[in-house]
Fold:
Amino acid sequence: MMAMNRAGYLAGYLKRPALAALTLTAAACGAFGPDREPPKMPSPAHYAVEAQPAQLPLADGVAQRLDTGTRPFPKWWTMYQSDALNALVDEGLAKSPSLAAAQSTLKAAREGLRSQIGQNMLPSVDVGFSPTRQRALGLPMLSRQTFIYNVFAAEVQTSYTFDFFGAAVLADRALARQIQQQAYQLESTRRALAANIVVATINAASLQEQVTATEQLVALGEHRASQTADRYRLGSVSYDDMLAAEQDAANAAATLPALRAQAAAVRHAQAVLLGRTPDQAPEPLTLDALHLPDRMPVSVPSDLLHQRPDILAAEAAVRATADAAGAATASLFPSLTLSAAYGRGGFDWSTFTSPAGAIWSVGASLTQPLFHGGALVARKHQYEAMNIRALILLSCRQRRIERGSAQPAPRRGRGVLHAARYRVAIPAGRYPVLCDADGRTAVSERECSVRSRARGAACRYGRIVRVHG
Structure:
């Protein structure tokens, strides 16, 4: 009974310093290093001087409605209502070597964090067994010069370093923040890849239809030049009219090689984004297969800053550098390491297995850094400077997003289709691309419509990307 009371008293006696050490560590984690929270930015009610309208003017048959305050849609490319486009984006995300490499890097970083936490926060326990047989020199006063003997030793060793000032906790937390930053950067890379695939698909569709329309223009121009030449031989038109018709046909044909090369380059880039070889590039989609979304989620500035992965990565970088600076500061203070070992040993097997072969050791080590050539202080200043740099980058990124997230793109996108349609309605004498032939006028109108629809889709795409990050 007395032994049990003594054991309880000893446990209570040891609990107090353990609780005090835990409290000191928790307090030190928040006391050392710069402020972990990024500065608060002003959150305006809307992006422009005036509030945006709830509905945009009609463009390409779609009157786009802005849903202010709605959270962005993760798979925003599905808003184009094209199964072929969705399949291309899914293929690119699944086969991208850049994403695979980034995912492997992130996995390796997480395993490194687990390794560091296990090394810093938990005690280390090792077991060793070393039987040896050796021939060694004897003492000078003995007759034998050498002796042959055996040594059997088995030992369990353990050690633990008390983190009174939170150096290990802050170092682990800084590494965790860095991994969080890498995760946000991976998500930003994934969204950027999806955006590049979408814009490459739109450009490929636009250029393919422009090539088709230009080929029709060239055929009509050559046909018109042939008719004008026949009329010149009959004397119904002048020689200048014949030369002008031939020049128009030559000018239209001269635009085809560059347009085809541009279309081939876009398809090449699209194949690379999809993880294919250029000879396996997908067939271009038609613009009719892409439908502009009729509803657009628009986040308020305060919500947008906490939805974009690049902003979240910048905030994680601020916290990581602050924790690293705190760990560097805590490393200037003393640390206590306790170690213990227990085992058996002997010069023969009988001694090794008997109670007389028990061996043990207990020790403590208190270390206070005094002079390291200024390395510890320099490391502290290094992380503090990195924290200031991260704060500046975060502030610049936040201000750039607040100034230009949503206001310029819609005005350009919603009027481009109307401008193109008004342009093709101008009489032939005022519009040099159009001619008196009804067929060529229709082809010219289609070419202008293709370009304007592609620009409209690209403008809507730019707005979606800015909102969704």
Q: What stands out?
A: The chain has eleven helices and seven strands. Residues 167-234 form the longest helix (68 residues). Residues 194 and 232 are 56 Å apart (CA to CA).
